[in-house]
Write a structure and sequence with these properties.
alpha+beta, globular, two-stranded antiparallel sheet, 6 helices, Hypothetical Protein Pfu-838710-001
Length: about 250
């Protein structure tokens, strides 16, 4: 776990990142927001059956050191303006239903294209109690400021596509390395099209950067996995006939 702390006036602000992220600290009057740099390696599986086999891999399970595999369901909708102003500014916004209640709003920014499965992007997150219909309804914070710099505050949110998948998480630990491996199985869908989803995400929590790359290479040698060329957002845009990424 990465821990970042900073002082603003007399207030000590602490932020935790479960994934390998660089966290900037902010103190706001009503609600805190986090801006992070997301870094992950994505691998595309030939089929969902590959994920089942990976989840039973003895060598990987040994690295879990007794930590059980956790399963969660993720249902999120991506939004933009009718004119695609966020996409024009290399931004992607989604709202995801949380199992404990509420919504998690997420904004990802420019990070460049994926290279050998590796993605690095700016990211902001906020918790919402209810869905919003217009961008001006976002709570105060960096996410709101970044979005309102690109869109009309009174513009309506227009849904683009939905991501709907089950995630199995394995926490791998060996030597000084800790890596979170997520096995995602489900679909990305628009009103008229569906794209099946079967992929592996690897995030380094601690240790050497070479370790996560070596793990990805090992998985690709033993299973029908390849470096992903698009993020989930990119796959959704492709369903809409948009050849773009952030």
């Amino acid at each position: 776990m990465f821990l970042a702390a900073c002082w603003i006036g007399r207030h000590r602000v602490i932020r935790y990142a479960l994934k390998r992220r660089i966290v900037y600290c902010h103190l706001l009057q009503e609600i805190d927001s986090i801006m992070a740099i997301e870094e992950e390696i994505k691998l595309t599986a030939a089929s969902a059956l590959v994920l089942d086999t990976v989840a039973q891999d003895g060598a990987l399970l040994a690295k879990c050191q007794g930590t059980p595999i956790k399963t969660r369901h993720f249902l999120a909708t991506y939004y933009d303006t009718p004119e695609r102003h966020l996409l024009q500014n290399h931004l992607a916004f989604r709202m995801r239903q949380e199992q404990g209640g509420g919504l998690r709003a997420n904004l990802k920014g420019t990070g460049g294209p994926m290279v050998a499965g590796l993605a690095q992007r700016q990211e902001w997150e906020e918790m919402l109690s209810t869905p919003i219909a217009h961008w001006e309804e976002l709570p105060a914070g960096e996410m709101r400021e970044r979005i309102l710099a690109a869109v009309d505050p009174q513009a309506a949110l227009v849904p683009l596509f939905v991501t709907d998948f089950q995630r199995r998480v394995l926490l791998l630990q060996w030597e000084e390395n800790r890596v979170e491996m997520a096995l995602d199985q489900g679909e990305i869908r628009t009103d008229t099209q569906i794209h099946p989803l079967a992929e592996v995400e690897l995030e380094r929590l601690a240790g050497q950067g070479e370790a996560i790359r070596a793990l990805a290479d090992d998985l690709m040698q033993r299973y029908p996995l390849t470096y992903s060329q698009r993020s989930k957002f990119g796959l959704g845009l492709a369903l809409l006939g948009l050849d773009a990424e952030i």
